[in-house]
Specification:
11 strands, about 10% strand, 17 helices, alpha+beta, seven-stranded mixed beta sheet, about 40% helix, Transferase(Phosphotransferase), domain 1, globular, Phosphorylase Kinase, domain 1, about 475 residues, two-stranded antiparallel ribbon
């Protein structure tokens, strides 16, 4: 049978062709029977059936997309207050949204902010948008001008300083591209609250970017301080180490491994230091965690992490010891003895060699050296825990070993006591409003002046009680 195939084939001609092919296939089936004829059955479709199948398939795809949209409709439409459970659910839904659906959908501002922040973060009409409800500012070093375009960058995002337009609350805002976001980035920080862990306020999806709002460390990170002011004094290191140990003691009691303790993940607040960046953290279910890949930053990794044969919370303690060496010297361990240009990777060195105690600062006290040795013990079973290190003698130095910070309170008290005593003995003709400019009266005024005697010391006291400032650099 011949068919004229000029122009477009008419439907009747194609149907006749398919009927003829069906007849031929039946003959072949009778002559050469096959056990599995699924391939034939798939091909034996009439033109009408084929068109119907395409239409049905298209309808099913549209229906599936609509169902997916309905399931996530509330997810991508508005910002709302919620619980930690709501926040984690939002993170999981964002992560599970397929790339194809992301490309087809026009995202509006959406997300969950914790209920406890209602007074500090104002959601208006179901949205919380940049420039409308919150300002974002590039985060620069506080101690030097390095350019308006500088933004500290993390592994998968960049940080800004945020401020609510109405309440003026200041926050840190980490921006993560939607395709790089994982629920693990916020799970630990949302579930566990501690004064030395940066508090998470909420997560928003805006402009296909996840905005994580959290407690702001306006003092910057320890790495920023090291790069701007150089090595830190030992009493500054002690102050910071105590706060980090408290955070680690809490996390380890919950069987959580941070996996990335380093100077850039320790942030200075006004009166404390906090840990940030929990994207690599793991909640252990057994005594030993066996990873599928290496987690952390190579300079600060413990030997057992590099082997990937299993490690515990003690790996964070080793990383803390490496961080202390960095704070003492201004350089991570290993790099002074093994230049980066000659050794592109330090994993083999860490695995084969003893802990880098040779990199400990020369002016390190005996107690602090012993502390570092206990924290960087190669055998994890013999390595001290966070709770044990908090009781180490290095964390409670005697006054004579830290005269500048230990004797300051008593010095202020003594000066103020003498001042009050001398004020009572002043002659009646001398008053605070005197404008005499002769040498004798000026000296007398300085001698009894609270502003001159205590002004600088008051600022010095504030620095000691809070994060150390650049004055010690």
């Amino acid at each position: 049978m011949e068919y004229a195939l000029t122009g477009r084939l008419e439907t009747s001609s194609l149907e006749s062709l398919w009927a003829h092919m069906d007849h031929m296939i039946d003959v072949m089936d009778s002559l050469y029977p096959l056990e599995e004829t699924g391939l034939y059955h798939q091909s034996r479709l009439s033109l009408g059936d084929h068109h119907h199948q395409q239409q049905q398939q298209q309808e099913e795809e549209e229906e599936e997309e609509e169902e997916g949209g309905d399931g996530n409709e509330s997810l991508f439409l508005s910002v709302r207050y919620g619980t930690v459970k709501d926040l984690l659910s939002f993170a999981n839904q964002v992560s599970n949204t397929s790339r194809m659906k992301r490309e087809r959908r026009v995202f509006l501002t959406s997300g969950v902010l914790l209920l406890s922040l209602q007074k500090d973060i104002c959601i208006k009409n179901g949205h919380y948008q940049v420039d409308s409800e919150v300002f974002l500012f590039p985060w620069k070093f506080a101690r030097r001008d390095i350019g308006v375009d500088y933004i500290p960058r993390g592994a998968f995002g960049k940080c800004h300083l945020a401020q609510d337009r109405e309440t003026r609350k200041r926050m840190a805002c980490k921006l993560i591209p939607m395709e790089s976001f994982r629920p693990a980035d916020i799970q630990i920080q949302a579930r566990f609250r501690h004064e030395n862990i940066a508090e998470l306020y909420g997560a928003l999806l805006w402009n296909e970017t996840i905005h994580l709002f959290m407690e702001a460390g306006e003092g910057g990170s320890v790495l920023e301080k090291l790069e701007s002011s150089g090595p830190m004094k030992e009493f500054e290191i002690i102050w910071l180490t105590k706060h980090v140990l408290k955070a680690l003691d809490f996390l380890h009691s919950k069987k959580v491994i941070h996996h990335d303790i380093k100077p850039s993940n320790i942030v200075l607040m006004s009166t404390k230091a906090v840990l940030v960046d929990f994207g690599l953290s793991v909640q252990m279910t057994e005594e030993i965690y066996i990873p599928r890949d290496i987690r952390g930053t190579e300079f600060y990794m413990s030997p057992e992490v590099i082997t990937c044969r299993g490690h515990s919370t003690k790996s964070d303690i080793y990383s803390l010891g490496s961080t202390i060496i960095h704070m003492q010297t201004g350089y991570p361990p290993w790099v002074k003895r093994y230049p980066r240009s000659a050794y592109p990777s330090y994993l083999y060195i860490i695995h084969k060699q003893a802990p880098p105690l040779e990199d400990v600062a020369e002016d390190c006290s005996t107690a602090m050296r012993q502390f570092i040795e206990a924290a960087m013990e190669r055998n994890p079973k013999q390595r001290w825990s966070a709770a044990e290190l908090l009781k180490h003698a290095a964390m409670s130095p005697p006054p004579e070993d830290q005269p500048r910070c230990q004797s300051l309170d008593s010095a202020l008290f003594e000066i103020s006591r003498v001042f009050r005593k001398n004020e009572l003995e002043l002659p009646e003709q001398i008053c605070d409003t005197s404008v005499c400019s002769n040498e004798e009266s000026t000296v007398a005024k300085r001698k009894h002046s609270l502003y001159i005697d205590l002004g600088a010391l008051a600022g010095y006291l504030k620095l000691i009680r809070g994060p150390p400032g650049s004055e010690y650099g």
